[in-house]
Every structure is written in structure tokens, then in C-alpha cells.
Amino acid sequence: MPRNMQIKNRRGDIPVTILVLMVIIICILTILSFSYSRTASQDSFFGVGLIETVKSVSEEASFYEKTQYTSDYGNLFNSGNVKVTINGNIIEGNYSKKGFSLFGSGKEKVLVSVTYQK
Fold it and tell me: In this structure, which of 2, 34, 87, 93 has its CB flanked by the most CB atoms within 10 Å?
């Protein structure tokens, strides 16, 4: 390389490098923050759906008690992550999700629980 093509001022290299690294770190943290908030907000709406499911199962159980028909699921309604059990006048609904595990299946964790009395 010719001598006049070399960079003569090297004092600005370190601050510029630090600035670029800080901008990259801030961008990564922002992306992670949006990703976390999206999954956290999705889990918060399951309570409303679970309440509606428990109410629906309650009305269906009331219908079966008043008529001669029988239900297909008895005292336990299980659909995906939602489990609704009927114990006399109390109906309990749970929304659960399997946790992350490195060694096999993860432990099931109840995210939302609803107790309804007929």
C-alpha cells in the first residue's frame, strides 16, 4: 500500500467500535424484549377463554341433569391444554402448559385456574 493511503488517525477507532457494539447490543435487547412481551401477552388472554369454557360446561351439565340425555365425557372435560372437572356443585377449570426440559418431558405447569359453583 502506498504510504498516503494508510489511516493516520487511530484514536477514533476504539470509540467507534464501542459505539457500534453498543448499538448492536441495544438492537438485540429490543428484539428479545418484543419477543418476550408477545408470548407473555398471549398467555394472559387464556383466562377469559377458560372462564367461558367452564361456564359452557356448567350449562351443559345442568342440561344433562334436567333431561334424560347423557354426556360423552362424564365428570371430566379435557381438550388440549384445558381440563375441566365437575365435582358435585363445583366446577374447576385449569389451563396448563408443559414447561421446557432438557432431559425428556417437561413438568406440566398450571397457568390459569378457575373455580365455578353451580
Answer: 93
